[in-house]
């Protein structure tokens, strides 16, 4: 049985001895492009049966990875550490693509 969650509300990241709750809103505050990517996903991803689904998915995922996760290359010098975490990447991926993949 396949169980799908609408999206993750928050992810906790271990930073030294402090748990930091990271939310979709926090990610978008620092990288507003994530909201544009989510909107594009709604427009371009109609389901895996669509012939261009995987190409569109990979292109959008590449855009997302430039904003959040270990390969994020944001122009701001003081990028918060949580933006580069795998938990933040997972949160963004689930929020953007959760209904399809």
Strand content: 5-15%
Count of runs of 4 or more consecutive helical residues: 4
Tell me the overall shape: elongated
Oligomer: single chain
Amount of helix: 40-55%
| Poorly predicted runs | 1-10
Summarize the helix and strand pattern as letters.
Answer: EEHHHH
Secondary-structure-derived class: alpha+beta
The number of distinct β-strands equals 2
- How would you write the strand order of the largest sheet? 1-2
What is the arithmetic mean of pLDDT?
79
Query: What's the gyration radius in Å?
Result: 14 Å
How is the main sheet built? Answer: 2 strands, antiparallel
Report how far apart the termini are.
Answer: 15 Å
Tell me what the structure shows.
The protein has 101 residues and is an alpha+beta fold. 44% of the residues lie in helices and 12% in strands. It contains 4 helices and 2 strands, in the order ββαααα. A hairpin with a 2-residue loop joins strand 1 and strand 2. Helix 2 runs parallel beside helix 4. The longest helix is centred in the middle third of the chain and has 13 residues. The two termini are 15 Å apart. The relative contact order is 0.23.
């Amino acid at each position: 049985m396949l169980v799908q969650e609408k999206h993750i509300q928050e992810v906790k990241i271990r930073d030294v001895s402090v748990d930091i709750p990271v939310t979709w809103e926090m990610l978008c505050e620092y990288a507003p492009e994530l909201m544009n990517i989510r909107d594009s996903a709604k427009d371009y991803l109609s389901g895996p049966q669509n012939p261009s689904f995987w190409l569109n998915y990979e292109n959008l995922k590449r855009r997302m990875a430039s904003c959040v996760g270990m390969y994020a290359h944001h122009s701001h010098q003081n990028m918060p550490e949580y933006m580069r975490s795998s938990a933040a990447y997972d949160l963004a991926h689930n929020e953007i693509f959760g209904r399809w993949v």
